[in-house]
UniProtKB/TrEMBL annotation, chain A:
Name of protein: FtsX-like permease family protein
InterPro entries associated with the record: ABC3_permease_C (IPR003838), MacB_PCD (IPR025857), Macrolide_Exporter_MacB (IPR050250)
Lineage: Bacteria, Pseudomonadati, Pseudomonadota, Gammaproteobacteria, Oceanospirillales
Subcellular location: Cell membrane
Superkingdom, taxonomy of origin: Bacteria
Automatic annotation (TrEMBL), chain B:
Keywords, alphabetical: ATP-binding, Nucleotide-binding, Transport
Entry GO CC: transmembrane transporter complex
Protein name: ABC transporter ATP-binding protein
InterPro entries registered for this protein in UniProt: AAA+_ATPase, ABC_transporter-like_ATP-bd, ABC_transporter-like_CS, MacB-like_ATP-bd, P-loop_NTPase
Pfam families: ABC_tran
Length: 416, 221
């Protein structure tokens, strides 16, 4: 039976090559776009590098500060002072790490200026994130506290500065200061916004100490708990602290702070929905994404529905014959939906291949440094689900309409 | 085996009611070879469609083997058509995308029969109509007569009790028409199949056991 459907589906595809091309093109392009977007999103939300244990982590990435008179407010990365006075006093997290966002640093290599991404961190940074050291080790608490000029660099930076040789023990000049390399890590994807960099230095080596007094600046914090079930309670503790125990050196200007200790989804949701209050907007983000996916799929689905309906006339004799020889309405619906799912699956496979190729090209182009855009099983299941939904969406209505044709009318040419 | 009691069929459009059949009482006995004759538009095909359970009467009762089918739903009607009735159409109605053998197998797809058994029965049916050598051809590669023989093989593959033929020779020349008639006669004689055939051709009608004449939607005795 299935073979019969398969043969018919294949023949129907071949019958009107131009229309088949249009249907397949619509399905392929739609799925390609959806697969690329979902792979990039999946890469962000389910990292495979140092932040792979992200379900144990919360990030303090943004705060919204309001003045006492309510006339001014800022949304920014938090400053060192805010983190030190408020975040580090939280009870629940087992570990904290504070670090800066990446900034550009200048070095000179054989007389040429080289720009690298630089991040200042503490020593627990290397405990809460899981870096892959290919040489040496991270800097420790003692080195941090004594402000020792040590550096961890990534593989690409090592290659640029030292070629294929080992780098540990050698010195590297960054922003006109000499640092001793203590460790080399594998390159990190740019998508892992808290882990990515070329060079990591102890924050105590900063040439100025003015950062210590800033409430808003360019710092981030990670809160860690070994039990991922504690994440929700940690988020609640953070918000309770902001509402009740927020310590401020300037109660007039920095009167109220809103925000959250965020998961990766929350971070994305805040940016996407511009929600910088206590609620990250993650629930709205999910509804928006589902809505966008459906409306994006609707157009090629309607196209396919139309095409399928126009094929009723061509196939009315077949429907009549099948009915005359004993096919029930249900059997015909199953046949047409199956045929449609087969057609969609072909478009889907093409879409998977095309998006794989495009992602590979993006990865190779270096547009997103260190990116690893391979399909994960999440995206694969998501993609296959989309294909199935697509087939069902665009096949069910025409199938129902086709199968309802009266056998006599169908044999005459399907006039009603 | 088939009883039509007081059958009427009317088609209702917005303002006009067209009467296609009225007051039809007809018994088809097992093993009969019957022809239905009448001018175009007199209701022959409608009558055949009602006999074949493809169309529902507006009034009256259809009984198959003594059992009324008035209350049957789509699924039961489909299953009854599949097991008891075979159709031969004037314009063959073969599925052009499928090979001859797959066309013949079609009625068996809706039965619980293995693929191997389906293939065996379809091959036997094609042998019965003298087309065993054409199993892998597509309908478009065959002549009209050959296509109608494929359609007959499809109609008989499920061994139906009743074969309904709507002008089976209408699209064929007299030579091919005669060949088709000979096959029908042999099915009737050798296999004791009950056959009802709509025809315009007096000569063919004479070769059947009983001729029913329809005029203006009524039977003329």
């Amino acid at each position: 039976m299935f073979k019969n459907y398969l043969v018919t589906a294949w023949k129907v595809l071949q019958r009107r090559k131009f229309f088949t091309f249009i249907s397949l093109f619509g399905i392929t392009i739609t799925l390609t776009v959806l697969m690329i977007l979902s792979t990039v999103l999946d890469n962000f939300l389910n990292p495979s590098g140092p932040s792979k244990n992200s379900d144990h982590l919360l990030f303090v990435d943004r705060i919204k500060v309001t003045s006492k008179d309510g006339n001014s407010n800022w949304t920014s990365q938090p400053g060192f002072r805010f983190l030190k006075d408020n975040v580090l006093k939280l009870k629940m997290p087992e570990k904290f790490s504070i670090f800066t966002v990446i900034e550009e640093s200048a070095s000179y290599l054989n007389g040429d200026k080289v720009t690298n991404h630089l991040r200042l961190t503490d020593s627990t940074y290397w405990e809460v994130l899981d870096f892959n050291f290919i040489e040496g080790h991270p800097f420790n608490k003692q080195e941090l506290e004594s402000g020792k000029k040590v550096a961890v660099i990534n593989e690409t930076t090592r290659r640029n500065f030292f070629g294929d040789a080992n780098a540990v023990g050698k010195s590297i000049e960054i922003n006109s200061q000499k640092y001793q390399v203590v460790g080399v890590v594998r390159d990190v994807s740019f998508m892992e916004i808290q882990a990515y960099s070329d060079i990591w230095l102890p924050y105590t080596t900063s040439s100025s100490t003015s950062y210590r007094s800033n409430l808003i600046d360019n710092w981030n914090a990670i809160l860690y708990h070994s039990n991922s079930n504690m994440i929700k309670s940690m988020q609640a503790e953070y918000i309770a602290m902001l509402k009740n125990d927020f310590v401020t050196p300037d109660p007039e200007e920095f009167h109220k702070v809103e925000g959250g200790a965020d998961t990766l989804l929350d971070i994305f949701a805040r940016e996407f929905t511009s929600s910088y209050g206590y609620d990250s907007g993650a629930a709205s983000l999910i509804s928006i994404l589902i809505g966008l996916t459906i409306s994006f799929m609707l157009l090629p689905s309607i196209n396919l529905i139309n095409l399928n309906i126009s094929r009723i006339m061509e196939r009315s004799s077949e429907i009549g014959v099948r009915k005359a020889f004993g096919a029930s309405t249900t059997q015909l619906v199953i046949q047409f939906v199956t045929e449609n799912i087969i057609i969609t699956a072909i478009g889907g496979i093409l879409g998977l291949l095309l998006s794989g190729l495009i992602l590979f090209q993006i990865e190779q182009s270096g547009l997103v440094p260190g990116a690893d855009f391979r399909y994960s099983w999440h995206t694969f299941i998501y993609g296959s689900g989309l294909i199935f939904l697509f087939g069902l969406l665009s096949g069910a209505y025409p199938a129902f309409k086709m199968s309802k044709l009266h056998p006599v009318a169908a044999l005459k040419g399907g006039s009603n | 085996m088939l009883n039509l009691n007081n059958i009427a069929k009317t088609y209702q459009t917005e303002k006009i009611e067209t009467i296609a059949l009225k007051n039809i009482n007809l018994n088809i006995n097992r093993g009969e070879f019957i022809s239905i004759m009448g001018p175009s538009g007199c209701g022959k095909s409608t009558l055949l469609n009602i006999m074949g359970l493809l169309d529902e009467p507006s009034d009256g009762e259809v009984k198959v083997n003594g059992k009324s089918i008035t209350s049957y739903h789509d699924k039961e009607m489909a299953s009854l058509r599949n097991s008891k009735i075979g159709f031969i159409f004037q314009s063959f109605h073969l599925i052009q995308d499928l090979r001859v053998i797959d066309n013949v197998e079609l009625p068996l797809l809706y039965r619980k029969i293995s693929a191997k058994e389906r293939r065996r029965l379809a091959t036997a049916a094609l042998e019965r109509v003298g087309l065993k050598a054409r199993t892998s051809h597509f309908p478009s590669q065959l002549s009209g007569g050959q296509q109608q023989r494929v359609a007959i093989a499809r109609a008989i593959v499920g061994k139906p009790e009743l074969l309904l033929a709507d002008e089976p020779t209408g699209n064929l020349d007299s030579h091919m028409g005669n060949e088709i008639m000979q096959i029908l006669e042999s099915l009737h004689k050798d296999d004791k199949t009950t056959i009802v055939m709509v025809t315009h051709d007096d000569e063919l009608a004479k070769r059947t056991e009983r001729t029913i004449r329809v005029y203006d939607g009524q039977l003329i005795h």
